């Protein structure tokens, strides 16, 4: 184990250059474990891209289907031997005509009151690439459903993975060798006064790198707080917390947190004590004259890479870190007592079993054990040591010396950061951005540039 006070980078530290980013990944270690369980765990991280590709390739052609009915269901026969069964109430609820779905705000206008399990169909017709339904309601109502929507929305059985609609794509997991070519964009490529009309495309490229790798450098940034704040606002809104909005700080302990000291910090995620931890963390080292100053190198660790390694090496540890909720707190600032009412596991998954968030900050960890069995306590400590051992391995740690003019943007739900102890006057600035905010900005840009559709059928997935 490595204590915070002794954190030091090894010789792999590099000064960040302006190299273009490519996907670099540490080769997988071959370990003999249960292949079925490992496959399930790896799908939780990667989103099962192979299966998704097969589903997209095997999706039925958009030819007019046949259909049949029961009193409460419509069965669509796609012509390739497959069928989709929809409850009438489901289709009536998902009508997106202007009286049911506002064309501008993309919000539902119909309550669930009229959506009854016995809603009747007067007539149904397939034409013009859609299913046209006349409902036996009072007043009468008409719905038109594009065939593509019905294929995507099919639930009995599911016919298409919705990852594409929700823009879930396989991530680039990385280890220490990301240092060879880290994801990077230039300041000039994302600022309107530099890139003109292409600046929004530059922001999309920037956010795509953050999404794919969990972090991205921006080079050529003017070394001022004003320029840094303006850059951050190109991504999204700055999130206000008990540390303020935009930060400009040195190691003066003006806040009750070790980040405001000159001590080393092991890899961690920030604001684990929030119900909704910060989505992005942005740092810019404005100055750290060396000499006389020393140290202060930044540490980055891909927690999803670490999780992937645990899934392959020790599935039981993975399950433990995904099951047992761990509380965190922030109590160092006067007038602040942060502790989420609902604790979460170190590895948090969505309802489909996909890894969505890593929450790890050993310094802010509360008293463990509420609702745990004695065996849970022992197993959690074992699993946590496995997690920490991989986090601190030379294969996982990426050390880099931040220099004035280079900003690093970190996905705080995925990539952990740390710092070597330092001497001298080191001035930093930066901010948090909410997870929903930066992801919304990215999706909106994908829509703007035609990657996602913009009509009423492309929203609300």
Polypeptide structure, described:
The strands form seven sheets. Strands 8-9-20-12-23-10 form a six-stranded mixed sheet. It is built from eleven helices and 23 strands. A hairpin with a 3-residue loop joins strand 2 and strand 3. Helix 8 packs across helix 9. The longest helix has 18 residues. It is globular, with a radius of gyration of 25 Å. With 461 residues, it is of the alpha+beta class. It has two domains: 322 residues, 4-Layer Sandwich (Double-stranded beta-helix); 94 residues, NE0471 N-terminal domain-like (2-Layer Sandwich). Belongs to the gamma-BBH/TMLD family. Its cofactor is Fe(2+); L-ascorbate. InterPro entries: AlphaKG_dependent_hydroxylases, GBBH-like_N, GBBH-like_N_sf, TauD-like_sf, TauD/TfdA-like, Trimethyllysine_dOase. It catalyses: N(6),N(6),N(6)-trimethyl-L-lysine + 2-oxoglutarate + O2 = (3S)-3-hydroxy-N(6),N(6),N(6)-trimethyl-L-lysine + succinate + CO2. Converts trimethyllysine (TML) into hydroxytrimethyllysine (HTML).
């Amino acid at each position: 184990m490595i204590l915070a006070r002794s954190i030091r980078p090894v010789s792999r530290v590099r000064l960040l250059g302006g190299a273009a980013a490519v996907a670099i990944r540490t080769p997988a270690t071959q370990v003999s474990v249960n292949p079925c369980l490992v496959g399930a765990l790896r799908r939780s991280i990667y989103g099962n891209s192979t299966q998704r590709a097969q589903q997209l390739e095997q999706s039925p052609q958009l030819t007019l289907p046949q259909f049949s009915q029961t009193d409460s269901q419509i069965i669509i026969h796609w012509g390739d031997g497959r069928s989709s069964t929809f409850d009438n109430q489901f289709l009536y609820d998902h009508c997106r005509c202007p009286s049911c779905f506002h064309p501008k705000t993309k919000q539902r206008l119909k309550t669930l009151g009229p959506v009854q399990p016995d809603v009747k169909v007067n007539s149904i017709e397939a034409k013009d690439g859609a299913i046209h339904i006349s409902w036996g309601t009072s007043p009468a109502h008409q719905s038109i459903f594009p065939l593509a929507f019905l294929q995507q929305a099919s639930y009995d059985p599911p016919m298409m993975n919705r990852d594409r609609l929700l823009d879930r794509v396989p991530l680039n997991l990385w280890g220490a060798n990301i240092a060879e070519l880290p994801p990077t964009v230039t300041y000039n490529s994302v600022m309107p006064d530099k890139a003109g009309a292409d600046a929004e495309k530059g922001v999309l490229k920037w956010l795509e790198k953050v999404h794919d790798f969990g972090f991205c450098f921006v080079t050529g940034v003017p070394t001022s707080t004003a320029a840094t704040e303006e850059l951050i606002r190109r991504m999204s809104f700055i999130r206000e917390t008990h540390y303020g909005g935009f930060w400009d700080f040195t190691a003066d302990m003006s806040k009750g947190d070790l980040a405001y000291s000159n001590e080393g910090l092991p890899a961690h995620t920030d604001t684990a004590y929030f119900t909704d931890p910060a989505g992005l963390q942005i740092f810019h080292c404005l100055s750290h004259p060396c000499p006389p100053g020393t140290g202060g190198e930044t540490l980055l660790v891909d927690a999803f890479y670490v999780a992937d390694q645990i899934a392959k090496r020790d599935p039981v540890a993975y399950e433990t870190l995904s099951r047992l909720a761990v509380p965190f707190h922030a109590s160092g600032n006067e007038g602040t007592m942060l502790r989420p009412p609902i604790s979460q596991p170190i590895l948090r998954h969505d309802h489909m079993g996909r890894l969505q968030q890593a929450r790890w900050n050993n310094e802010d960890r509360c008293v463990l054990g509420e609702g745990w069995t004695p065996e849970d306590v022992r197993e959690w400590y074992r699993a946590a040591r496995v997690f920490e051992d991989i986090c601190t391995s030379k294969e996982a740690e990426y050390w880099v010396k931040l220099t004035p003019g280079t900003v690093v943007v970190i996905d705080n739900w995925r990539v952990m950061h740390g710092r070597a102890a330092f001497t001298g006057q080191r001035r930093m600035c930066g901010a948090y951005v909410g997870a929903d905010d930066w992801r919304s900005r990215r999706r909106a840009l994908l829509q703007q540039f035609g990657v996602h559709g913009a009509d009423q059928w492309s929203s609300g997935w």
